[in-house]
Automatic annotation (TrEMBL):
GO terms for biological process: protein folding. Residues 28-105 form the J domain. It comes from Carnegiea gigantea. The keyword Lipoprotein does not apply. Keywords: Signal. This is J domain-containing protein. Residues 1-25 form the signal peptide. The lineage of its organism: Eukaryota, Viridiplantae, Streptophyta, Embryophyta, Tracheophyta.
Length: 361
């Protein structure tokens, strides 16, 4: 009964595939998974894994399109494209079905299923079921840790205080190694395989043989391109802006990530202190004694009134609430602290001294 159900599922799958292929240009399963016809099991597994990991919500937070794509993968019957990907893996990961497909194509697979072949591996299998079977029951996070990846590239990026206050963009030129096709084939994924050979009635010999898959040869070439880095309001030193899979490439693996680590560039007027800003203002001795009217031009060029009618002591610090840095991903702001430097006269005449004594006596 179970075998019959699997056969029916497999036939249903190919009916849907036939309908899909009549609506779009025909693709081979190898094209769908973007692997060569002689691809090893490991290459096929990596190709499918990359699709699964690419659209996972944990890697695409806030990206509605990626989340929608993941939902489609999670319910394969809702998406013909994802159903094709699933079918491609179902066939190419099974040595018997793959051999039939390589020799006779989809018609051969249909006949195989109709004649009672093993067909699909399960009924109503969703993305998580495939993922669990595919990776031995591990979670997406566990599997991502196992993926062989190239090195992450971390670049210290100096952002202007204006961009960190208002938000902005920076153009960055990036050079990296790129994997390019090269002539010939290469041996990879070498492994030992054990098989038994009958040498007589009831007599078998165990033989161990080293097997190497033949893969297209590749080489590294240096290429450069311009990247646009988005600086968000309120980002702090040490925060990172990631470009996934734009780090160093890895043959038979996945590229690492490129990460720009924010550093606040020095500013002529303001100094950043966490979410606050600090600055110094020079005033004369007279202004310190009788008060003054002054404004400071802020990072976005709005004016901050720092006037006072009272006495200002040397090195006195005043706080201006809400005039500091914006908090990242928040509508709140820190504070502005102004230190007043009192400029004393370098010399006084006798007449000036006399008048000061009369006023202050």
């Amino acid at each position: 009964m179970a075998a019959r159900r699997r056969t029916m599922n497999f036939l249903f799958l190919f009916c849907v595939l036939s309908f899909a292929l009549s609506a779009i240009a025909a693709k081979s399963y190898y094209d769908i998974l973007q692997v060569p016809k002689g691809a090893s099991d490991d290459q096929i597994k990596r190709a499918y894994r990359k699709l699964a990991l690419k659209y996972h919500p944990d890697k695409n937070q806030g990206n509605e399109e990626a989340n929608k794509k993941f939902a489609e993968i999670n319910n394969v019957s809702d998406s013909i494209v994802d159903l094709l990907d699933w079918a491609a893996y179902e066939v190419l990961s099974d040595s018997e079905k793959r051999n039939i497909y390589d020799r006779y194509g989809e018609d051969g697979l249909k006949q195989f299923a109709a004649s009672g072949g093993r067909g699909s591996s399960g009924g109503g299998m969703g993305f998580q079921d495939i993922f669990s079977q595919f990776f031995g029951g591990g979670t997406m996070e566990d599997e991502e840790d196992k993926v062989v990846k190239g090195d992450d590239v971390i670049v210290e990026l100096e952002a202007s205080l204006e961009d960190l206050y208002m938000g902005g963009t920076m153009k960055v030129w990036r050079e990296k190694n790129v994997i390019k096709p090269a002539p010939g084939k290469r041996s990879c994924n070498c492994r030992n395989e054990v098989y038994h050979r009958q040498i007589g009635p009831g007599m078998y010999q165990q033989i161990t043989e080293q097997v190497c898959d033949k893969c297209p040869n590749v080489k590294f070439e240096r290429e450069g391109n311009s990247l646009t880095v988005d600086i968000e309001k309120g980002m702090k030193d040490g925060q990172e802006i990631s470009f996934y899979e734009d780090g160093e490439p890895k043959i038979d693996g996945e590229p690492g990530d490129l990460k720009f680590r924010i550093r606040t560039a020095p500013h002529d007027v303001f100094k950043r202190d966490g979410d606050d800003l600090r600055t110094s203002v020079n005033i004369t001795l007279v202004e310190a004694l009788v008060g003054f009217e002054k404004t400071i031009k802020h990072l976005d060029e709005h004016l901050v009134d720092i006037a006072t009618k009272g006495i200002t002591k040397p090195k006195e610090v005043r706080k201006f609430k809400g005039e500091g840095m914006p908090l990242h991903l928040s509508n709140k702001k820190g504070d502005l602290y102004v230190t007043f430097e009192v400029l004393f006269p370098s010399a006084l005449t006798e007449e000036q001294k006399k008048k000061i004594k009369e006023v202050l006596a």
